[in-house]
C-alpha cells in the first residue's frame, strides 16, 4: 500500500520537536533568508544540521523552504544556501523561483526538488511543466476541487512525481504567488516572505456607479476561514495524494502538537481502512487502526487556532461560506454566553472545563475584551465566576465567550521527546566477546510484544497516551520502510565464567534496558547466554552505549559525508538586440483596442477572458481570430493566470469555455503562468512571458529562454531600476516593464462581489459585474475590483502607476518594451495613456529628456524596492 506522508510546519526548534513528538512523517522549515516566512524564528545551517540529525534518527524527513523569488545579485547566495543545506542533511527543497528550480536540477541532481504552491500549479500543463523542471513533488494550489486533485495526482504519477496538498491551516484569499497587495501598499512582499497580511484588514465594498457602500456580513472582506480537512482525509488518500501538509510556521508549538496529533489519528485511520480492503496487505505490517475522529478531536483543532473552519474549494465552495468576514484572527473555542454580570464578575455556564491560565475573549457590543482566568471559581449552580477589570468592564449578559488559549495545551519541549523503539540482542558466551546489537523495531515487533494492538489506539484513552502510541507506531513504520535495516553493534572483552554469583537473564535485561538520556526505548530484548557466566555491569553498560551510538550513526548514515558535485559553468546565451523600442497596451474591449491603435501602440494585447463584460473577449465567433470580434488585426491574446481543467467542480467545467482556441502555432501570445508557458510551447506559439510569472533574476531569464524559447519577458513589478539594469545586461531576450496603468494586486477564486449577498453564480451574465466596484480601506483608498467571466476576482491598486517620466533611465537600463495597462480605462483614457507613452518615448529618443510625472500616481517599486 502506498505510504502517505503527514507534513508539519517547524518555525523553530521547539515546533520541530512538537511536530515529531506528535507523529509527523516530515517537517518543512526555513533558513534565515529565501523563505516565505521570514518572520518565523527559522534555522541557521548549524541548527538545521542538528534538526536533521534529530529528525532522521526518528525516520522523519526535513524539507527546506526556498520559496521566494530571487532578486538579481542574490543568485549565488541562494545557490550556496541550497548547497550548504543539502550538506547539512536536507531531504528536499521547496522552491518558487523558476530559475532556482532549474539550476538545482542541473547542479544538484541528487537533491529532491519540490515545487512550492507559490508556483500556482492547478492544471495538467502545470504538472508537465513541473516534470520538465525536474521536480519530484508538486504542492498544488489550494483552489482545487477534489476531482481536480485526483486528476492531477494521476497525471503526476505518470510523470514519476508526487503530489502534496494543504490539509489544514490558514488560507490565502489570493492564489499563492500572485499577491502583490502587501508589497504595493506597504513595501513588504509576500513573494519575499514578508507578507503584512493586508487581506486581514477591514474593507468596505463600494458600488462605483451608485457611489455608495454595500451591506456585508462583516468588515473583513478578504479574510477566509481556515482550512480543515480532517473529515476528508480518506478522500484525499483515495485521490492519490502523497503528502498532507499542515500550514503554520508562524504558529506556536502547541498548535503544531495538537494539529499534527489529530491528523496523525485521521491519517492512520484512513490508511488502516484502505489496508483492510487490500487482501494483499500483510496484517501484521498493516497500519494500526485508530478510533474515528471525534468531536473532542475537532475541539482540539479549534482550540489550537481557528478563524472558523472550511473545506473550501475541495468541495466546490467559493462563496461567503468560506469567509471569516467578522473576525480575521483566532476566534478560539466557543464556551457559551454570559449568564449574568454582577458584583464585578461575569458568570458563565459552559460544558467545557476551564483551567487557571486559560485566555478568554468576550465579544461585546463595544468590541472584544480579553481576560486571563485566575484560580477557577464556580457558584452553587456550577457557573464559572470570572472577575472583570477595566479591560473587560464592557461585558454584558448575553455576550459570547471564547477560549483563545488553553493553559493545559501548553507544550513542554522536554516533556515528550519521541523515542525510537528498538529491538536488542545481547550475546554472552564464555570465551567470546560480550556483544550487544540493536536495530529499529517494526510495527510487527510492536504488535508481537503487545506494545500496541488493534485496541490500543481505538479505545477511549487520554490524548497524551494516544498521541504517544501513535507516534511510536509512526516511527516504527517509517524506519521499516528504509531500504536497508540500520544495525548498531558493539563488542567488549571476552565473557568469563562467574567467580562468585552468576549473571542472570533478568540482570542482563535490566542493565541493557537502562537507556537513560538516549533517544531510544527498548521494546524487545533477546539474551543469548551460557549458564554460569559472569560479567561486570560497567562493561555491559559501555558495550550497550557504544552499540546505541553505532545505531544512531547507522540511522544518520545516508546523510553523513554528503559531497557536492562539481558542475561546469553555463555557457552564456547570446544577448538579444531588439530592433527598437515599442509601446504595448493591454485592452479589454474592441473600442479601447482601436483607440490604442490610432494613438500609435505597436503591440495590442487582449485578455482571453474579458474582465469587464458578460462574455469572453473573443467569444461568440466561429472564427477565433481577434479581428472577427471587432478587434483590429494583430491583437495578441493573453492567457489567464488561472485556467483550471474543465472537470469536477471547477468554474471551467461550469462555464465550458476554452481560451486555448486562440493559441495558434507560429503566432504570438502572452503566458501568465508556468502552466501557460508549457501549453504555449506545446502549441508552437511565439511566447511573451507576462509579469505574473515572476522573472526576477538571470537564471529565470535563461530558463524561460532555453526551456520555452520565450522572445520577450515583462518583468516583475517588484524590481527596482538598479535591479532591472543588472538583469538587462546582456539579457538573452527582450525585456519590458509596466509603464502606465493599473497594477493587479490579487487574483482570487472567491468572488469579492459575493459579500453583498448570495448569487446564482452564473458569472457570464452576472448583473453585478456590469457596475464598477471598489474595496475601500481604512484610509479611504479605493481598490478597483473586477470579476471575470469565470467568476474570479481581480483586485487592482488604488493608485495608478506612472513611470513614463523614467523612460530615459529605463531605456538606458536596457528596457525596450513599455506596457500601458488600460484594463480600467475607457477608449478616451486609453488613447491618452498610449499617447503619453509615445510622447515619453519620442522625447527620450530625441534629446534624452523626460516628460513630467503625472500627479496622484505612484512609481511602484522602481526606486524603493521591497523588503
Automatic annotation (TrEMBL):
InterPro entries: Pept_U32_collagenase (IPR020988), Peptidase_U32 (IPR001539), RNA/ubiquinone_mod_enzymes (IPR051454)
PROSITE patterns per the UniProt record, alphabetical: PEPTIDASE_U32
Domain Peptidase U32 collagenase: 417-554
Name under which the protein is recorded: Peptidase U32 collagenase domain-containing protein
